[in-house]
glutathione transferase (Cannabis sativa), 307 residues
Amino acid sequence: MATFSSTTSPALGSGSSPLIISSIPTTNNNIQFSVFIKLPKPNKFPTPKLQFQLYFGGRTSRRTWVSSAAMATGSVQEVRTPALTSSSDPPTIFDGKTRLYISYVCPYAQRVWITRNCKELLEKIELVPIDLQDRPAWYKEKVYPPNKVPALEHKNEVIGESLDLIKYLDSNFEGPSLWPEYDPAKKEYAEELLSHTDTFNKSVYSSFKGDVNEAVSAFDFIETALSKFEDGPFFLGQFSLVDIAYAPFIERFQPFLAEVMNYDITAGRPNLKVWIEEINKVEGYKPTRSDPKEIVASIKKRFSMSN
């Protein structure tokens, strides 16, 4: 018969709070299941971690999981440094550091910024903001020839494209997993929803020309998508890369449609209303948000709309 025990062990968390270890060994002691609850260090990204460890006769497999509730605890402290302009000197490129080049106002870059925060990589990935209206020439010449953001400098290479990058960060860096690797149904649906992001964005942007019906259909799709799984308020139940992919755009669409087109995207959509409430609690997302008034002004300018 399996037995249960609980102990604390500071050895597994050098310099941090103790880890609580619970294990259930089998009668032949060949398989052991352990749970490690790692409390955050002071002044670090304060997300409690649950680590599951399986021991198979000398072979250990570990898996870290962070619930949506845990991601909403504590706070992410990061001061926004001024964006680099055409008169700014470049960083010491390809010096072994990992850098994420973004624009504070770009929703595509925001996706990767959020992922970096939620993966607890603030100290491992340096944020380099670029002024898109006054881009430094060295960015195109020396860093990323497509001259777009986001771009990630890692292992002396630079890669881009936001959806590729959020997956890259999740699979190539330590930290809480943001992808449903062990649930085939959720994994398949995640891919489907990521593939739909461009269609969703284009439909809503089309509504800015005056036909709000495009936005109605787009947000009806979101409402239905949010009802697929019932184990949490997010697209896959628990917080994931899918939520990160949609959040920067819904953040922009909601205030613009409300102010300019008098359209409330949450009206008659309880799932979307709850999703917005919950996504706004995610600490990795909070520091990346823009002022709604600035969002509306920016979109008006882009679409040549008078105030």
User: Anything to note?
Assistant: Confidence is low (pLDDT under 50) at residues 1-70. The two ends are 72 Å apart (CA to CA). Residues 184-207 form the longest helix (24 residues). The CA atoms of residues 151 and 160 lie 4 Å apart.
